[in-house]
Amino acid sequence: MLKQLFSAKHKQPKCSGKLHFLIILLFILSHTLAMAQGVVKSKADTLLLSRFEFAQKDTNNGSDCICSITNTSQANIAMITLTGAPDNDTIRLDNTEVFNGTHFLKPGQQVVAVGNFAGARITVLNLSLLNVLITVMLFCPG
Predict the structure, then answer these.
(1) Could you tell me which of 137, 99, 96 has the C-alpha nearest to residue 116?
(2) Handedness of CA 82, 87, 92, 97 (dihedral sign)
(3) Where are the beta strands (DSSP E) in the chain?
(4) Gap between the Cα atoms of 119 and 27, Å rounded
(5) Which residues face 97 on adjacent strands?
(6) Spatial distance between the Cα atoms of 18 and 5, rounded to a whole number of angstroms
(7) Which backbone phi and psi does 110 adopt, to 5 degrees?
(8) Burial class (CB in 10 A: 0-12, 13-18, 19+), 91
(9) 68 three-class SS
(10) For residue range 40-61, what is the model confidence (pLDDT) as tens digits?
């Protein structure tokens, strides 16, 4: 009896050409809708600042901005001054130090601040004693 069950040939259900066409059409439409979800690609403002150079960026009120600063030197400490964050101390570098003020970056160190700068102008100034280059990336969508 078991042998009969396993050896019995099953008939494949026949699909019409219209059904195949509808399946392919639905697949194409769903793929198109999934790819057209409005992903926006944008490039952030990235600068390389030498000693005593500064960068400024006007922020948008109500949108979060990202500020990333990297000491490119492998041997020297960088000294930077940052201004532009609201006075309520909610924006911090790596969630530790308050954004506004003077900061020291170890060789190769990167710090990041994310938050709503409330339409203020972010200023990053390289005050390093030696000719230390810093990379500054400022991004404010909108």
Answers:
(1) 99
(2) positive
(3) 45-49, 54-58, 64-71, 78-83, 92-93, 97-98, 101-105, 110-116, 121-126, 134-139
(4) 45
(5) 93
(6) 33
(7) -125, 140
(8) buried
(9) strand
(10) 666 788 999 999 999 999 888 8
